[in-house]
Amino acid sequence: MPVAKFGITTGLLKDKEYFYLVSCGSTSAKVILEQRYRRDSVETLKIARHVKKIEARGIKFNSWYDELEIFDVMAALITPKNKCMNMPLKALINPYINKSLNEKLSMLYWQDILEKFEYKIRSNHLHIGKILFTSADINKIKFSIVWLNHIMQFPRSLKVECMLLSRDARHEFLARGPSGLQSISKGNKIYLRKLFNSMDELMTSDFFNKASLEFSDVWFKKFTSTDRLKLLKAIEVLYYSGQKSYGNFPIFYLFNKDINLDISKIEWLYQIGYTKIKDLSFVCNENKKLLDNEKTFNILYESFGKYKA
Question: What's the CA gap between 303 and 295, in Å, rounded?
């Protein structure tokens, strides 16, 4: 019988962990829970209500999983794909696990990839340099591998309801730059003219393609001014770390013990749709003037959020 990678089995995962995976859109976790409690009407109702709540957020589950043998569904959930195996251990950082473990993971080098430590994790004996992981840590690491495998296998594209620029307005910006936006602007045209005249088109293109009212609400109401500086610093540290191709990593990868931005703040961004690091490419010092002014977000949305060519 083949050895389970990292020693992960479906029995190792707790119900709370399955529910969290369902919250992240894991159809495999949903089917396993439903199968486990198929004869328990109370638990079945609890699962159905949880699924309905997640679907209300726009997350869809694959109905064809119901046609698969349960053992195939289990294997799909707990068997890491190569993409996951080649991820840094620190990519396991997530809001479900405790702060102490997240801090330990954040201190690892990005060259420490999961595949190199498969045996140690499976054997429940893991230490890397001076960092020692307890048995409880390793159990959470095993869960986090399942989580990361799902996140990387089923990435969510950036989809936010109230983008500052509608699709047609973004096409106008792409074709003609700020002058194109100025020609279709509504509302406070004087404010917009001054704004566009002071901008660097190349530096601000990501802002116009990705910023939203949802982001503004989190940025100005959930984040303090110190939190905002910490996120900018975390992104800057990652940029200068020497790593390549981290754009598709979960945004929780930005958590850094030294910078100490509360991971719950990062989770707010994840919940509104900014799930990958590249989704935050507009959060940079070059765009600080735009990012510092809530009024700018509101005026841009009022002028271009519902524009149709």
Answer: 12
**Residue 171, number of CB atoms within 10 A of its CB:** 14
Whether 122 contacts 7, CB under 8 Å: yes
Q: Is the dihedral of CA 263, 269, 270, 275 positive or negative?
A: negative
The answer to whether the CB of 266 falls within 8 A of the CB of 283 is no
- Amino acid symbol at 85: M
Q: Tell me the average confidence (pLDDT) per consecutive run of 10 residues in the chain, 309 residues long.
A: 85 96 96 95 96 92 89 94 96 97 97 96 95 97 98 92 95 88 87 85 83 98 97 95 92 96 96 96 92 95 92
Is-contact 106 93, C-beta < 8 A?
yes
Instruction: Write down the domain spans for the chain.
Output: 13-78, 82-153, 167-304
Q: Which two tokens stand for residue 43?
A: 């638990």
CA 169, 171, 172, 173 torsion-angle sign:
positive
Six-digit token string for 291: 């990012």
Element (H, E) at 128: strand 126-128
Local structure of 127: helix, strand or coil: strand
CB 282 within 8 A of CB 163: no
Q: Residue 231 and residue 248: Cα distance in Å, rounded?
A: 17
Nearest to 19 by CA among 9, 10, 29: 29
Amino acid identity for residue 183 in this structure = S
Q: Which pTM does this prediction carry? A: 0.93
pLDDT at 189: 86
DSSP bridge pairs for 127: 132
For residues 111 and 261, the answer to whether their CB atoms sit within 8 Å is no
Written as six digits, the tokens of 58 are 């726009």
pLDDT of residue 83: 95
